[in-house]
Amino acid sequence: MMREQEGSNSSLNVKQVSDVYHMFSSCSSCSEVMECAKALQSLLEVDGVALIQLMLRPDHSITIERVISSGFGFESKCVEWDNVYQKKKFQYIDPIVSCSSSFRNSFNWSSVPSMMPLSETQFNFLEQAQEMGLKEGASIGSFSTRQIYKELTITSVCGCSLNPEQLASLELINSISAQAMTRLMLPVEKLTTREREVLAWSSEGKSSWEIGMICSITERTVKFHLKNIYKKFNVQNRAQAIVCAIRLGLV
Questions:
Q1: Triad 116, 117, 118: Cα angle to 5°
Q2: What is the value of pTM for the model shown?
Q3: What is the C-alpha to C-alpha distance for residues 98 and 56, in angstroms, rounded to an integer?
Q4: Helix (H) or strand (E) holding 227
Q5: Given phi > 0 = left and psi -120 to 50 = alpha, else beta, which region is 24?
Q6: Helices and strands, counts by H and E, the chain
Q7: Which residues, 6+ apart, have CB-to-CB distance to 229 below 8 Å?
Q8: Fewer C-beta within 10 Å: the chain N or C terminus?
Q9: Highest mean pLDDT among 3-7, 68-72, 160-164
Q10: How many Cα atoms are found within 13 Å in the side-chain-facing hemisphere of 1?
Q11: pLDDT, averaged across the chain
Q12: Interhelix angle for 193-203 vs 238-247, to 10°?
């Protein structure tokens, strides 16, 4: 399951790196980002690629907003690990997340113990990840800011460690893949004045009934506007819509 690091004398094709970069720069849908992830996987000759978008809040909470991966993990264990990771909220103890948020350069996972002190809980986490097949890989994080919130996009590869040239290419690609992940949150359609009003009051913690009273409309009409907002933002609930609105500076 684990491959040795590629020889340092192997060279990446500059045109191929450029092609993958431009693929990410123009994609605007989940399916297109997935194709870009597959292209990056082929470029670096790794077993898998994962793009993970996290939201970091002032209260130190961390939520996973979106994950797009290609071949990350091995066989059915990939899905199993993803479910366990999100259920147990491993993003709070994952040293890869910590290193990606603290260091601006790409790094091999094998370097993590030398980059930060690890707790017993984090060592146990790494052992669990290795049992799932995630033994070797590399990652890099990229920050963007939306008002008081920080968005961390991590580009990771698994299957082997990367040589310096590959790590440099991963850094280059991450700078544009993070933008691609953020674009997925942009609404296809603009919100109406009433929809923005409903969304603004929702961000203040008002219930549908309370918003109806404030706006002089029925609770049913409020829910109708919320459904339209969910559709335009491509989200499933009120909390996700508020997060999206904050990122876009709408509230």
A1: 110
A2: 0.71
A3: 12
A4: helix 219-233
A5: alpha
A6: 11, 5
A7: 191, 195, 198, 199, 241
A8: N
A9: 160-164
A10: 16
A11: 86
A12: 100
8 A C-beta contact, residue 43 and residue 16: yes
**Token digits of residue 13:** 């094709």
pLDDT tens-digit readout, 225-245: 999 998 888 778 898 888 777
Strand order in the sheet with 62-70: 62-70, 48-56, 149-158, 137-146, 107-108
Q: Residue 151 has what pLDDT?
A: 86
Q: What span, in angstroms and rounded, lies between the C-alpha atoms of 238 and 244?
A: 10
* Nearest partner of 169 among 6, 4, 11, judged by Cα: 11
Contacts made by residues 186-195, CB under 8 angstroms, sequence distance 24+ = 186/248, 187/232, 187/233, 187/234, 187/244, 187/248, 188/232, 188/234, 189/232, 190/232, 191/229, 191/232, 191/250, 192/225, 192/228, 194/225, 195/225, 195/228, 195/229, 195/232
User: Rounded to whole angstroms, how far apart are CA atoms 51 and 221?
Assistant: 37
Distance CA 224, CA 81 (A): 37
Structure token digits, residue 3: 């491959």
User: Cα 207 from chain centroid?
Assistant: 30
At 194 the three-state DSSP class reads: helix
Nearest-CA neighbor of 238 among 213, 212, 210, 201?
201
The model's pLDDT over 164-194, given as tens digits with 9 standing for 90+, comes to 999 999 999 998 999 888 878 665 568 899 9
With contact defined as beta carbons under 8 Å apart, do 47 and 20 qualify?
no
Task: Give the CA distances from residue 3 to residues 46, 71, 219, 225, in Å, rounded to whole numbers and listed in that order.
Answer: 9, 15, 58, 52
Confidence of residue 69 (pLDDT cuts 50, 70, 90): confident
